[in-house]
Amino acid sequence: MKRQKIKKIIYKSIPLWMVIVIILQSSTLVGLVEYYIMQRNINIALAQLAQTTKNPEELVKILTQKVMPQKGYTLAVVWNDIGQQLMRTGVIDKQKYDQMFSQDPGDANMMKYLSTSSHDHMIINEANSHFMVNTLWGLGLVNKNQILEEGPMQTEGPKDPMQFASTGGWTLGTKSTSDLYSSTPLIELTDKQEDLVKEISSNIYRPCCGNSVAFPDCNHGMAALGYIELAVKQGISEKRIYQDVLALNSFWFPQQYVSVATFFSQQKKDWDSLDPKMLLSAQYSSAQGAAQIQQQIQNIPGIATQQGGCGA
User: What is the rounded distance in angstroms from the CA atom of residue 251 to the CA atom of residue 31?
Assistant: First the structure.
């Protein structure tokens, strides 16, 4: 019954002619406009169902679609030649990437961005999340940055930045990680931009660790740092950067963010109305925060209890 209700609302909200236009003109501005209108109507329908359904398992399915849209999420930054630059620095070994990603169609389709310059926006979805976390990880690792040279990676922990998961775990380059670490100014930032990267990074956490992105000791933290640097360089607004990193985190840690969405749904708060900066704070996105959220909703059917780790 609930599934039929979803279909009924979506069919009512999305006229057949709109679907046809999108299919026939997906590469045109008209097609893009119609697509976003359709997506908005779907989100409205899902929000209404999330507020009215009394079936917990159905609610989790609805929230999963809101947190991780089936079509994926389009990030604000564009690729340009960043993939080619990563190849030139040696942080990415093409042969190793081929071995790791060529078997999965979703990841294999992304390989083109390593060899050509493109004005395409980066996209994160279930099929390419593995490729994206690794590629952004490599970017954060190799880009010369004050956070890596002066921040907690140098002053906390074992005092040797090569002993963290984000450094010791990198095996996809043609050079040693010690030679790659903060070695190449791929993303040259002004002092003001560097300060903005530090501020944003200090406010963003991930469920596998208790540290902010300003202490990128794991692969997801280093990947988020790479994205933030690139977004600041391209002039993306601070608000949008938080929104984008929330999308990245959500596809990298789906169980945790569906849990957060469920927690707020119990308070009659829709996922799309929540502040991404708040959701990325230690209260909700650190390992400790995620564990506390999990405890509060652990008895809801359909909610997974496994916590995310730092594995790629």
Answer: 26
Unique residue bearing structure tokens 């609930």? 2
Question: Would you say the C-alpha torsion 253, 256, 259, 263 has a positive or negative sign?
Answer: negative
Q: DSSP string covering 218-263, please?
A: SHHHHHHHHHHHHHHHTT--HHHHHHHHHHHHHHHSHHHHHHHHHH
Beta-carbon count within 10 A of 311 CB:
11
Task: Give Cβ neighbours of residue 234 (< 8 Å, ≥ 6 apart).
Answer: 76, 77, 78
What is the token pair recorded at 75?
A: 């990030």
Q: Give which of 247, 309, 311 is closest to 276, Cα–Cα.
A: 247
Per-residue pLDDT of the chain (312 residues; tens, 9 = 90+): 545 554 454 444 445 444 444 444 544 344 444 434 444 543 444 444 445 455 667 888 899 999 999 999 999 999 999 999 999 999 999 999 999 998 888 888 999 999 999 999 999 999 999 999 999 999 999 999 999 999 999 999 887 899 999 999 999 999 999 999 999 999 999 999 999 999 999 999 999 999 999 999 999 999 999 999 999 999 999 999 999 999 999 999 999 999 999 999 989 999 999 999 999 999 999 999 999 998 888 777 666 644 455 555
- Helix/strand/coil for 79: strand
